[in-house]
Specification:
This protein has a single domain (3-266), classed as 3-Layer(aba) Sandwich (Rossmann fold). The chain has helices at residues 3-16, 18-34, 49-56, 64-70, 72-85, 105-118, 132-144, 184-195, 209-219, 239-246; strands at residues 122-126, 148-153, 177-181, 198-203, 223-231, 252-255, 261-266. 44% of the residues lie in helices and 15% in strands. Bound molecules: S-adenosylmethionine. S-adenosylmethionine binds next to helix 7, strand 2 and helix 8.
Amino acid sequence: MNKLTFLVNFLAYVITNPKAGRQILDAKYQSRQDSKHRVFNYAEKKTQLDDVIKVLFPQSQHAIEDFSKNTAEVQSHIGSFFDKLKNETYPSKKKPYPLEYTLDNKSGLFLYILCKIIRPEKIVETGVAYGLSSMYILQALFENKKGTLYSIDSVFTPWQSKEMIGSAIPSHLRKNWKLILGSSSEKLKETLSALGPLDIFFHDSLHTYKNMTFEFDTAWPFIIKNGFLISDDISGNNAFHDFYSKIDMEPFVLPQNEKSFLGILKKS
Ligand SMILES: C[S@@+](CC[C@H](N)C(=O)[O-])C[C@H]1O[C@@H](n2cnc3c(N)ncnc32)[C@H](O)[C@@H]1O
């Protein structure tokens, strides 16, 4: 598809879907506002995965390598899913999200280990895309034989579709999964109010200061004692930093690459 056709299709979509158009414009505006602010540097706060697990769960008998072996199947499934997509054009119906948009394996492994150790009943995540974070969580719930993952995401652009949300998640892992269609600003409050106390909240949707702050403020009161609030991509703005400062807590910060970090807060 050439640029002009893309633009015409995009405009037609926005005109026929004014709500989606407003969401796209609002997200762009929020990102632009965020780019005007200096961001906190997490480099000095970072802790490697082994140490995060040792400090959080000193009693755990399992080595990281054992957990890592358990996720080999998930990782190979992700590898073949992405192999099929790599030659497709982005954005398109077949490839609605860029491949680098997805959670890195180390963060996925953290989510898996966390769910294996604390054996959660209820997890809420925002932002699914192909479903990588969901898969790591669901693999643990499948092995635990308990727990439900509630994921909030929607169709925001003409190339996205309901079918592609979580499309990487294999059928045997879907038993413990409930997809809630809508933006987090529309669905998070009502979802949490209906669910009650929560073991884990994971943010990976729209990474703007406004949206992240809204999600953290909304989810935190629902998280049980010893439960977790986790956020992907904390380094694009100061929402995570301002949130943990406000509640007077210190996070764990797991490095993904030089610029990107996963933020972890345990509620005491
Ligand atoms: C970074 S991707 C999620 C990656 C995913 N967690 C993974 O591990 O592969 C961001 C996702 O957030 C969704 N999203 C964007 N804005 C959102 C909003 N306001 N509410 C809910 N989801 C949103 C997008 O549709 C996209 O699927």
